[in-house]
Amino acid sequence: MRDDSIITDLFEGQLCSKIECQKCGYQSLTFDNFMDLSVQIPKKYISVGSVDVSDCVQSFTAKESMEKCGYKCEKCKAVDRMEKDITIFRFPTILVIHLKRFSRREKITTSVNIP
Q1: pLDDT, tens digit, for every residue of 27-76?
Q2: Long-range CB contacts for residues 23-31, cutoff 8 Å, separation at least 24
Q3: Which of 35, 45, 98, 113 has the most beta carbons within 10 angstroms of its beta carbon?
Q4: Is 71 in contact with 82 (CB distance < 8 Å)?
Q5: CA gyration radius for the chain?
């Protein structure tokens, strides 16, 4: 009853962050709650002039290689041979997307198409 809120019921979603060791295949899963997604406009679309919001979200959830981060595998103790993957595990009823519109102190004027 204490943590019951209409705001959380409507706006809270959950992300699943998976870190996988490229050496032994061990996977570490972490779940994080969010109230909004803060996404960047992919660099390849900045000069084009327009981008779909789905491309921004796809860029946010794209796999990335973790190099020189110091992360150590819990199973084989390998360092810096990890791949990180973020997925939206549970969507909120109302999804709020925040667009990061600045890069190196300059405003990105690319228009964002929202279907």
Answers
A1: 999 999 999 999 998 888 887 788 999 999 999 999 998 877 778 888 88
A2: 23/73, 23/76, 23/78, 23/81, 24/73, 24/75, 24/76, 24/78, 26/73, 26/74, 26/75, 26/76, 28/74, 31/89
A3: 45
A4: yes
A5: 17
Angle (nearest 5°) at CA 38 between 4 and 43: 165
Residue with tokens 């190099």: 67
- pTM greater than the 0.85 cutoff: no
Contacts of 68 (CB under 8 A, 6+ apart): 80
- Asked if residues 21 and 81 have their Cβ atoms less than 8 Å apart, the reply is yes
Give the three-state DSSP class for 8. helix
Which phi and psi (to 5°) does residue 27 adopt?
A: -120, 135
